[in-house]
Amino acid sequence: MSLFESLMSDEEGHIDFLETQIELFDRVGAELFAHLNATKMEDAE
C-alpha cells in the first residue's frame, strides 16, 4: 500500500467517526449528546 493510500484510509476513518457523531447529535439532541460525551471530574485526566 502506498503512502497516499494509507493516508486516505486513515482519513476515511476520521470522516466516518465524525459523520457518526453528527448523526448521533441529530438523533438525541444537544443536551443528551453533551451528557454522553461528558467525563466525571474524578475520571478526567
Automatic annotation (TrEMBL):
Keyword Oxidoreductase assigned: yes
Gene3D superfamilies assigned to the protein according to its UniProt record, in alphabetical order: 1.20.1260.10
EC identifiers of the protein: 1.16.3.1
Keywords, sorted A to Z: Oxidoreductase
Record bears the keyword Oxidoreductase: yes
GO molecular function list: ferroxidase activity
InterPro entries reported for this sequence: Ferritin-like, Ferritin-like_SF
Domain of life: Bacteria
Coiled coil: none
Signal peptide: none
Top EC class for this record: oxidoreductase
Protein name: Bacterioferritin
Species lineage: Bacteria, Pseudomonadati, Pseudomonadota, Alphaproteobacteria, Rhodobacterales
